[in-house]
Amino acid sequence: MRLVPIECIKEGAFLGKTIYDNDGRILLRQGVILNNNYIDRIRQLGIFSLYINDEYSAVEIEDIIKPELRQKSIKILKDSFLHIQHFHKKNEEYFNSIFDIANGIIDELIGRKDLLVNLVDIKSIDNYTYQHSVNVAVLSLIIGIQLQLDKVELYKLSTGALLHDIGKVFIPKEIIQKKGKLLPNEYDLVKEHTIKGYNYLKNNIDISPVSRIIILQHHEKIDGTGYPDGKKGNDINKLARIVAIADVYDALTSDRPYRKAMSPNEAIEYILGSGQTHFDFEMVKAFAECIVPYPVGMLVRLSNNDVAVVEEIFPHFALRPIVKVIKSDNVSDVGKVINMMSELDLVIKGTEYSVD
């Protein structure tokens, strides 16, 4: 199973991961043979990448949380945010449901033997905010567990991460979903989502003050160049510093109306390069240990210009997987399995989506 931009998908590939519509209903099940009609329909939903199984990669990769929990969480957030957007009123039932999914995601992640993230979550344009919020909660908790936070802190982290973008319900939809680059005045409006979200919930005693601070501070940067208050270093709440990393990683690896998604390795390199300026470096290191830059099934180009498929990942050595050569100028090397832990003269140059 590998992630491929929709324009690179050919008829006859098998869908590797079930696709849901904007209401959480199954649109196409895993295993369906894709044809041009299906591909066009998916594109119309604002989905620009798909997981497929083909001749190069047919290994199923498990999501780090159950699909049922992910879809339930997305639906609860969507219903809650739309209620707030339309009525500007707090609904205790919705918030209780959000608290339940915050705990549910914690329980599921704590119960896992490993916390390596192999998948990038696929998002549609219309549901981006809700899907993004769930993924940011999952990624934040992975960092939190790696940093050995206790369960009380994990709950505050999970709740704050799920609600970190709640202020966007008060920003015009046409700006949030704009396909082109934002004008300066539009970007200033978007930046207000941190304050608007915090102010909306600041008197809600059922939500921890720390969770509310996450909403306010998740765009602050270690060097003081963030917003809304330009806070620096340890003046930024610890849990907000965690959510900042998860927020940027998930945004970078998501297709947006105005740009294509980065591959996991490109996004990790960006975040590592921004350690000690934008992000807390110790938290960045904890994050990088849990994210697989070249997941199983991905096509990669090696430093000798061969194209190979990733077959196995070594925890803590994700840059040196076992790969199988599928294209080479030396025909006798096609099909060769290489353990990059021992073949130290080879490195991965980047990702590929086609061998044509």
Distance between the termini: 18 Å
Show unreliable segments: none
Helix content: 40-55%
**Structural domains: how many:** 3
CATH domain class of the largest domain: Mainly Alpha
Q: Remind me, CATH topology of the largest domain? A: Hypothetical protein af1432
User: How many helical stretches?
Assistant: 12
Please count the beta strands (DSSP E, at least 2 residues each): 10
Strand line-up of the largest beta sheet? 9-8-7-6-10
Judging from the principal axes of the Cα atoms, what is the shape? Answer: globular
Query: Any idea what the CATH architecture of the largest domain is?
Result: Orthogonal Bundle
CATH superfamily of the largest domain: Hypothetical protein af1432
Order of secondary-structure elements: EEEEHEHHHHHHHHHHHEEEEE
Major sheet: 5 strands, antiparallel
Strand fraction: 5-15%
What is the CA-atom radius of gyration, in angstroms?
21 Å
What is the overall pLDDT average?
A: 91
The helix-and-strand class reads: alpha+beta
What does this structure look like?
There is one protein chain. This protein is of the alpha+beta class. The protein folds into 3 domains: 2-53, Alpha-Beta Complex (Molybdopterin biosynthesis moea protein, domain 2), CATH 3.90.105; 67-288, Hypothetical protein af1432 (Orthogonal Bundle), CATH 1.10.3210.10; 299-352. Helix content is 40%, strand content 11%. It has 12 helices and 10 strands. Strand 6 (299-302) and strand 7 (307-312) form a beta hairpin. The longest helix is centred in the first third of the chain and has 21 residues, at 67-87.
